[in-house]
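Morning, I've got a small favour to ask if you have a moment. It would help a lot if you went through both lines with me. I owe you a coffee for this, so here goes:
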Amino acid sequence: MICDRCKKNPATVHVESIMNGVRTEHNLCFECAATINAEMSVENIIKEFLSSVIDHTGAFGGNDKPETGPVCPRCGLKYE
């Protein structure tokens, strides 16, 4: 079996992943598997996760609506 990524070397690693409910399988050579492993470092995974959270919510669980509450009629200072 030939590597699904480089299409040159014999595939020696089988990788299965599930992203957004979609299962994919890849047969990779050692070199391509090592490259993908380096690309998927913990730091990159955390950055991608946090980026998706920010993109989804606009902030960490917050919303874009300003907080409203009692306002001092004299100086305009908000209670919060």
Notes: The mean pLDDT is 79. Strands lie at 13-19, 22-28. The two ends are 64 Å apart (CA to CA).
